[in-house]
Structure formats: structure tokens, C-alpha cells
Specification:
mainly beta, Jelly Rolls, six-stranded antiparallel sheet, about 45% strand, globular
Length: about 200
């Protein structure tokens, strides 16, 4: 397990500009004039402290890191390996503010690589406990908006659904994170412009 503050990536990050597109896991996208609560934009303090948790905890060799690019965006990247029965890479961070009562969900502004990712929410500060997850797809090299309603998060423990767990409580959003798995072997890259709570 690696714990670190976000740092800026070196000059190897290529600057590219693409047309913006929007995407939503839900049937309705957040309204333009709705209430928003910034969780992080990766430049405005306090910066979140991200921890890498990969399949090395079970003998795998995958690696991942969350950094801040020269453009001021978050960059979740690394290599997913299926060796030694591995197959997941993730990062997580505790939040300074935890109460999202009155909000409908989480809005992500991301540019991916065409792979599927999972956004995770924990309602406690424990290392290994029930979490709430929701998967989303990305479009290669395209900026998209992904809205994840709180009511659509599924309780999970070590990759398995926990149907008898209570629904996600928006007033107890203590940790957030990203994960890639599902045998998507190889290099991965997810750029994140901002993470927000959204509401009516």
C-alpha cells in the first residue's frame, strides 16, 4: 500500500485537446443550474491524499498512482496485470467534508481510454469494509461528464455484492476512490478534471 499527497507529473505528459462530450450512467443528466459541491478539482486546497491499493495485497503485480498533471487535472494511471491471480488496481482518498445530504449524487468530469472504471464510496474510515460502487464506461481520449446517483450505488465487499447492506447514506461519505479490474489487462489512464456532488 502506498500513501502520498498528489504531485505534479513531469513534462512527459503530452498536451492534447479534444472536443468535449457528455455521458451519464443515469437517464437524466444534472441540470446546468443545479446545486454543486466541489469535492476536488486537483488544484484548489485542500488537496486530497490518495492511497494506492493494488492486487499486490493478494500476490499480484499490478500498479497504479494518482498524480496531478501539468494541466492541473488528476491522473489515475498504471498497469493492470493478471499474473499471480491478480487483476485490480485502485486509489482512494479520505474527504475533509463528509455530509452530502440534500445532494443527488456524484458528478465526474473525466477523459479515459475506452475502458470501464469503478467509482467507490466508503461510509467509514476503515481499510477493509463494505463499500458502495458504481461502474462507468469511458470514451478514448474524449472528455465526458458521468453522473452517478447515490441511489444507484451498490454495496460490495471484496468484489461481491452485499444485498442485505443498507443503501448508501449521503451524510457519511468518508472516502472516495477509483478502481479498474474486469481483466482489462495492460496500461490504463483516466484523467479527472473534477469530482463534485450534485443536487436539485
Amino acid at each position: 500500500m502506498k500513501c502520498f499527497a498528489v504531485v505534479r507529473v513531469g513534462e512527459w505528459v503530452k498536451k492534447r485537446y479534444f472536443m468535449s462530450r457528455s455521458f451519464s450512467n443515469q437517464s437524466e443528466e444534472p441540470a446546468v443550474n443545479e446545486q454543486r459541491k466541489t469535492i476536488t478539482d486537483f488544484t484548489t486546497p485542500p488537496l486530497l491524499r490518495w492511497t494506492s491499493i493494488n492486487d499486490v495485497v493478494m500476490g499480484g503485480v499490478s500498479d497504479s498512482l494518482m498524480q496531478v498533471s501539468d494541466e492541473g487535472t488528476g491522473l489515475f494511471s498504471g498497469h493492470l496485470s493478471l499474473e499471480n491471480n491478480g487483476g485490480f488496481a485502485s486509489v482512494r482518498a479520505p474527504l475533509p467534508e463528509n455530509d452530502f445530504s440534500g445532494y443527488d449524487g456524484i458528478l465526474l468530469r473525466v477523459k479515459g481510454d475506452g475502458k470501464r472504471y469503478s467509482f467507490r464510496v466508503r461510509t467509514d474510515m476503515l481499510y477493509d469494509s463494505v463499500l458502495y460502487r458504481q461502474e462507468f464506461d469511458t470514451e478514448a481520449e474524449q472528455w465526458i461528464d458521468v453522473s452517478l446517483s447515490f441511489s444507484s450505488f451498490r454495496p460490495s465487499f471484496r468484489g461481491r455484492d452485499v444485498p442485505d447492506a443498507p443503501p448508501l447514506d449521503p451524510s457519511r461519505v468518508f472516502q472516495i476512490g477509483f478502481l479498474i479490474s474486469e481483466k482489462q489487462e495492460g496500461e490504463f489512464r483516466l484523467e479527472i478534471e473534477r469530482i463534485e456532488g450534485y443536487g436539485a
